[in-house]
Amino acid sequence: MFTLSGGHVFPLYDAAVKTEGSGPPLRLVDVRHEQSAVFAAEATARLTRTPGLAVVTAGPGVTNSVSAVTTAWFNGAPVVVLAGRAPDYRWGAGSLQEIDHPPLLAPVTKRAWTEHDATQVAASVDEAFRLAMSPHRGPVFLDISLEALYGQAEADLPPGPADRPLPAPAPDAADVDRIAGLLRDARRPVLVLGSDVWLGGAEDAARQAAQELRLPVIANGQARGVLPRGHELLATRARSAALRQADLVIVAGTPLDFRLGYGSFGPEEAPARVVHVADSPAGIAAHVPLAASATGDLTAFFTALAAHDTQPGADPDWVPGLAAVVRAALASDGPLLASQADPVHPARVYGELLRVLDDDAVVIGDGGDFVSFAGKYVEPARPGGWLDPGPFGCLGTGLGYAIAARIARPSAQVVLLLGDGAAGFSLMDADTLVRHGLPVVIVCGNNAGWGLERHPMRALYGYDVAADLQPGCRYDEVVRALGGAGELVTAPGDIGPALRRAFAADAPYLVNVVTDPEIAYPRSTTGV
Questions:
Q1: In sequence order, what E strands does 93-213 have?
Q2: How far from chain centre, in Å, is Cα 66?
Q3: Which residue ranges in the chain fall short of pLDDT 70?
Q4: For a surface tag, which of 10, 94, 294, 480 has the fewest beta carbons within 10 Å of its beta carbon?
């Protein structure tokens, strides 16, 4: 239970620590801002593929959590948010923190409602967990009036656990046959895998289908690692070439949003046919013409697709050609990853990090330009170990994600890649890491500004404003003051030793790397 203390929800804390014979006490992790509680619950859901639980108090406890709930909504993360609520018997009289929460949360949850009856609290909570886990997964909000939460009543408990993954129905066989036919006719097919492949437990089936059908794969979100780095079919580093030249693109488990050019692929004179696959009908894109689509359990989809003979029409040079593009891209990385530039080039941070990163590490990105470099250079060896804010683009996720990752993966490295702008949203929760004994390595890319805004504004207007932060700000000293550890790094040769000290430390440790503020990540989309 991730939470921030509030009187409206005291009975939930009492139940968590007592349990009275129903099992060990529920671990209770209290944070410094409600958004961190919900971000931690979201990361728990995304790493464990079981629901995350956040408990927030009434009024500002709920409103402080809205951006985090929205992030979980965009990421399809099964999160249950339980909240307190002002008493019914004084409703409308102006009680402390009185506000009707569900209308605020309804647009960004699968359901948002209030329970007023103590006899129905258990059933409503059970319903919230089951709904969060049903495809398409997502956050659910339930607030409970003061009388119901503090009241006593006899009630039957719902049967069985509500936190197990619920499979979607199998996709329609005719839809799979249609997609197989398109693949059979394609010369240059590409398979794009998104986070729902991981969240739906379909990573093995997706990998096997890609290998059996010889499909080049582009992975994003938590599907990164479904094909491990170095795999001959992994074409993520040849993404632009693959999507620009493809004649068929199958996108599974992710929306056709700005990250994928809104579903526009292939040469301008001969656009690629697009297939969209999702775990529920609401996930299928309606803004772009589709050659075919399928909905349902993603494991069943990939298994059925792999059973078709779809290889004969493929261009024999397609996969080797993309592999050559990948090799060229990796070769071109070398000079930047080993850059001796002063000030530090941000790519050098990743050159050093890759030397010490384990295959099972959880890598968390929270930032703009600095984290964009991570997306380019850090290729996970396994699926499910990459966490970023997702398409909603909300900064401040990092500390909550790190708290959850250390609990969910106690033996793995946990690395938070933090922009200096993002640090301002949640760095105080380093205190939470300290209080709860959660050692995490935090690498702060400190370029003294909002790089994601600074450089585009200069391109548009010839100058920038409201984009500067304090040069060389000692974020490491903030973490040290909160009981953790850290150090400042200003020279490229000092990055590696600092990282090794951070991983060896049994404490939250922030490596504060001052990077060149004039280096901008070379992005191809702005998301608008």
A1: 112-115, 140-145, 189-193
A2: 16
A3: 19-23, 162-166, 310-312, 524-528
A4: 94
